[in-house]
Amino acid sequence: MEFFWYDYETTGRWRMVDRPVQFGGIRTDENLNQISEPITLYCKPALDCLPQVRASLVHGIAPQKARRLGITEHAFAQQIHALLMRPGTCCVGYNAMRFDHTVTRFLFYRNLLDPYAWHSRDGNSKWDIIDLFRAAFALSPDGIQWHFADDDKPSFRLEDIAGANGVDISSAHDALADVRNMLRVAQLIKAAKPRMWSNFLGLRDKREVKRHVSANSTFLYVSGSVVHWRRGASIMMPIGSDDKGAVFAYDLFYDPRPLFDAPDEVLLEKDSLGDKALHRIRLNACPYVWKFDLDGVLTDRQTALMDRMGTKLETLLQHRALIRDKEDFGRRAADAFAARWPRDRERDVDQALYDGFIPRSDRPLLDRILNLVDEPGPRWEETPFKDERLPELVFRFRARNFPRSLSAEDETRWYQHCRHRIFESKDDKGLTQYEHYVKDLAEARMQCADEKTRKLIYDLEAYGKELEARLLD
Prior knowledge:
The chain is an alpha+beta fold. The protein is about 45% helix and about 15% strand. The strands form three sheets. It has a five-stranded mixed sheet with strand order 3-2-1-4-5, sandwiched between helices. Helix 7 (about 175-190) packs across helix 8 (about 195-200) and helix 18 packs antiparallel against helix 19 (about 450-470).
């Protein structure tokens, strides 16, 4: 097995919508020795994507710079796809399950590549080491230095972990620099916690995860969704599952009785008991879980962990017994989670990846288009796809990457889409993307303190005006 460590800088933090600006990656062997040259790629900005000002100020990459140094999103996706698809590759990031891996999936989807094969074929897998650090802090914090905020809350941001352990973070938020920092802290924790490293690496396999969260068991769960004063750790029991590879679990720290009579519509109300105690754990997202048998003889380490969490065995057993007597509790939790994330079939096609797998019969048709990119044309959209998303997805792929292939009618259609997305569609605050952009630039200008930031703000303003002139005239 080889590791490929990677990171993106993006136009914003909305992982299903925002686009990559920069990519950095390093390949290592299992012992974390670098075995190939590092790679950095820039992606040209697409006409239908306006960067978020705050994100641009963090990574410092103006759209003009990305355009000058970058390649088309198609070429960008193709190069990354080749790196991640190398047989036996474990693709690793920091907070990647919640961000970078999703960015990759949608990048491949927009560019007609299989969005899942890179972590599911030829011995390939995906991993994320942020929860390894959370688990080390919760279970065995010695050997690693930790960064604490003013409220004594530990920070698991990469730059904070790296800085606390003597890593130079002066280039943070450059994709390749962040990958180097990620690799350094990975080497640190692998050396300090070899057994924990090995155990967590095994949880890349959802079958191994399932073994720890099987029915009628209790298990340790470490996650950023568990309150920090319990060191992000708790003892859970599974109460149900869904058909999408997730388990619903209850945090036994909390007395469940107030939830038994709560109306279904408020079961997961924000900051409520249900919101804190009910968890949806995706088996394929490498969660940090481990069997924790409450019926056996507890070890000194298990007892010490419960003391740090502020709970006792008797309390956990009592709460488990109460839930076992409520046979419909798991179903109610499943219904509540389904209501929290309803499936919106009216969503934009670029964001519709999770509306269903692309039919197998359509995959060869998409591959044929990718093999004919030297001859782009409207016949691509006329391919007899079964999936109703694909004609529009293929049109946008052609428009973004091969604009010279657009007829006058095609160009009008493409510009209408871009104009609607940036200048016409309003959010729940009644503002368009461009109105947010102008507002955020004004605020940034008032807070600006250095020449480098002023130059970036000037470039962002100029880019906004360029789009305005191009799409509204």
